[in-house]
Amino acid sequence: MEKYQIILVIAVILAIALIGTVAFSVVPAKISNQRSNQEGTISVTGEGKVTVVPDICILSLGIEAQDKEVAKAQKKTADAMNDVMTTLEEKGILEKDIQTSDYSIDPVWKERKIVAYRVKNMVKVKIRDVDEIGDIIDAAAKAGGNLTRIEGIRFSVDDPKPYYAEARRKAVGDAREKAEQLAELNDVELGEPISISESGGYVPSSKGYYRTMEVAGATPISPGETEIQLTVDITYAIRE
Asked: N or C: at which end does the chain have fewer Cβ atoms within 10 angstroms?
């Protein structure tokens, strides 16, 4: 009986030792495999830029009036805004290209007392003929008189998709060129891309503008140029 007990104890000890040996042999193999995967790739970032001339303008303009009575301030604003809208229509601006961006009624305080009310009505106007921007600004300012507020101009591209495509093509080409150079310098062969991500986008140029009086003469406005930039991150496999 004692003989069988001794054999059983020895068997248990051997089993525990065997399990420990297997456990220690499996873990390093898994880590080695992960390291091998990491070392088998080349990651690069490519940039693509395209310079374009804007073909549309987004003009932020409106009317701001003040009076001791809210109703009178509203009427002043409405009358002047109607004149501005009529002028924009006469200049060929379509109704779909005019969007209200802000309407507010605020008290005017002086020495902790409300002395008047300020009413403001702002719209965003898309101007499709950039050569007419100066004339349109002047006409709108004249129609609204001293109540006119022109708070900003932003130039953009009506259809940026072709420019995005060109910037993307350049970014991918730039990434490929960098990856090939890295592979050559490290004496390895570049494989296929295994992951691709894109970031960046279109950043329009802008020009601040503020006017509160009638305009004498044409206002010079230049759209200049703007830049579309895209960035791609690509990871390539190293071919064995």
From this structure: N
Contact 229, 203 (CB under 8 A): yes
Look up the domain containing 170 and give its range. 41-51+161-204+229-239
The predicted-structure confidence for 161-208, as pLDDT tens digits, reads as follows 999 999 999 999 999 999 999 999 999 999 999 999 999 876 656 554
Q: Are residues 101 and 211 in the same domain?
A: yes
Q: Report phi then psi at 178, rounded to 5.
A: -65, -45
Contact 150, 137 (CB under 8 A): yes
Domain of 197, CATH number, reads 3.30.110.170
Write down the pTM of the prediction.
0.68
CA 225 – CA 163 distance, rounded (Å): 13
Q: Which tens digit of pLDDT belongs to each residue from 89-111? A: 999 999 999 999 999 999 999 99
